User: Fold these one by one.
Assistant:
Number 1:
Amino acid sequence: MRFTTLLAPIALTAIPLVQGGLISYGLCQTGCNTVAVACYAAAGAVFGTVVAAPAAPAAVLACNAALGTCSATCATVVLLAPIP
């Protein structure tokens, strides 16, 4: 048996378990949605009521794009961040 085969399990148990934290993810998503609601209000629309994307104003489409970017950032950064 090789020395590295014996050492690998011991080394892996020494690494502390770290999770991103679902609460942090929820708070991040809540912040994204709050900004999206404010963006819709500034565009003169109500969040969640715009049905057809081609008929939507350009400002509402920009709000949707910003919400998508913010949500993706939450998913990639906050879920992987070392928050115990």
Number 2:
Amino acid sequence: MFRPRSGYPDRVVRGASAAEYVPATAGLGELRAAAASCRGCDLYRNATQTVFGAGDRNARVFLIGEQPGDREDIAGEPFVGPAGRLLDRALAEAGVDRTRTYVTNAVKHFKFVPPERGKRRLHKQPSAAEVSACKPWLLAELRLIRPEVVVLLGATAGKAVFGPKFRVGEHRGVPVDMPELDGERYGMAVATVHPSAVLRADDREAAYQGLVDDLRVVARLLER
């Protein structure tokens, strides 16, 4: 059972990294097991557990979100809460087979605002240092899956792949070549909003349709 702790430090130690916890050669099962013991940054201190990626080992589509939410932190699986259910529906409507995808997050531990008694824990955006510290896990997942299309769900995912100047609004729905990451390239990237942004939108219907339209771009890439 989750018990609130004292909260997060304001900064991650410069140069902190998960690299020393990532096995040099491993399958997804071994990576997941190793990530459970990651201490690459301080986010593990308050999170219930590491939430590693999940999905098809041979996935053509690799979706990256920001970080696990409250439900994911408890369940230990990515995209199982309200945002995940919305993503499932949008993928189906766009013509992308959810069972043939791999989903993960740029950050593998839940960062949240310490809750008041009886309240749900609320997401807090991870810092650039936390995203950087967790990046070795993301690179290891990409090396194993080797997807054709990478879907960037939101700004944090985009910055994890393309760097701090990335802006979703400037790139969403437009296929671009993936940058070289640790000496490797992985097909095309398509950016869109995070499903949680759709849930927060004033015009949820329009925001949802925008997400579906961006995912249809992914479906067309798969038809080539």
